[in-house]
Amino acid sequence: MGRSSKKGPFVDPKLQKKVDKAKETNDQKVIRTWSRSS
Question: Is the model's pTM score more than 0.70?
Answer without folding.
Answer: no
